[in-house]
Design a protein that fits this description.
Low-confidence stretches: none
Number of domains: 2
Oligomer: single chain
Order of helices and strands: HHEEEEEEHHHHH
Number of strands: 6
Strand content: 15-25%
Structural class: alpha+beta
Largest sheet: 6 strands, antiparallel
Mean pLDDT: 88
Number of helices: 7
Helix content: 40-55%
């Protein structure tokens, strides 16, 4: 099913809030935002950047503002989408269609568009990654095989860390040896520990 069909199916599905989310859609389609479909929801973008999405659930429906943290929120209606996890996204929840004031919704949407145009976005910060020493067993294998060591050094730091953790996290020596036996041919062949999942 293509994106257009998914969008139509989302709005056509029989649901308590079917009419209400249709109203939100009508308001948003009056703006320059482009309608697409991401993460199972109609999503509205500006120059391929996510601005907002329309969502519906069992007990409420609403708008997710991807960078809602920057909205002035004069009505004090925005909630953190997931307290403790979400930094930028804010959610405007509605419980029935009569709560929707088109002018108020349009004001929030327009502010979100202006913020996006002005690049007022929260960029995610990378988590600091703890360096994990190369395990002794692996070091011993490198001493015996220079080709193996060179192959290991050709991996990105992230992939080397995966190999290191794989051995280091084993509690028993026999498990460490078993894991070492598994990864040595992978290293020689230039295959990362989790490549098959990527």
């Amino acid at each position: 099913m293509d994106k257009a069909a998914k969008i139509e199916a989302y709005f056509e599905e029989e649901h308590e809030f079917k009419k209400a989310i249709g109203t939100l859609r009508e308001i948003i389609l009056k703006t320059p935002l482009e309608e697409t479909f991401k993460w199972m929801f109609p999503t509205y973008t500006l120059q391929n950047k996510n601005v907002l999405a329309i969502c519906k659930f069992k007990n409420h429906f609403g708008i997710w503002f991807f960078n809602g943290v920057f909205l002035t929120d004069p009505l004090n209606v925005l909630e953190n989408a997931q307290e403790g996890k979400t930094k930028a996204m804010r959610h405007w929840k509605f419980s029935n269609e009569y709560d929707i004031d088109p002018n108020q919704v349009m004001a929030y949407v327009n502010e979100a568009i202006i913020n996006q145009k002005n690049n007022r976005v929260l960029t995610p910060t990378k988590k600091s990654t703890k360096h994990i020493e190369t395990p002794e067993l692996l070091m011993e294998a490198f001493k015996k095989n220079a080709k193996l060591k060179k192959a290991y050094q050709n991996f990105s730091e992230y992939k080397r860390k995966e190999f290191n953790e794989y051995i280091s996290t084993a509690k028993q020596e026999k498990t460490k040896l078993k894991r070492l036996e598994k990864i040595l041919p992978m290293i020689e062949d230039g295959i990362g520990l989790n490549d098959k999942y990527r």
